[in-house]
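Project channel, design review

CF: Before we commit to the Saccharopolyspora hordei constructs, I'd like one complete example in the thread so the newer folks can see what an input/output pair looks like. Taking Nucleotide exchange factor GrpE.
RD: sounds good, go ahead.
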Amino acid sequence: MTAVTTDPLGQALAERATLIQLCMYALDRARSAGVVERLAEGLSGIGVTLVRPDGDRFDPAIHEAGGTTPTDDPALDGIIAETELVGFSDRDRVLRPPIVTVYQYRRQ
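CF: and here is what came back for Nucleotide exchange factor GrpE:
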């Protein structure tokens, strides 16, 4: 008879990852601001943060461009206008990059 070795830490980490994925799914579909806030607070309590980089400079290494919006202000060129789909990070590890709309300067 072979002894079954279980790894409680590995199992707990796998279950944590599954619950985080479920919360991300629920947050994406939540229509209530209160539900979104509660899910965000719960995730934050375990080290998972929502990434909404509105106003930051676009960086393709950490953001995904979903589109552009024109601007007549050259200072806004390359700045994130809005977050289309919130991103998530687990401490320093990116779980999902945010999908953003970026200002693009219209040359006169």
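RD: helpful, thanks. The CA atoms of residues 43 and 49 lie 7 Å apart.
CF: The beta strands are 48-51, 64-71, 80-85, 87-90, 93-96, 99-105.
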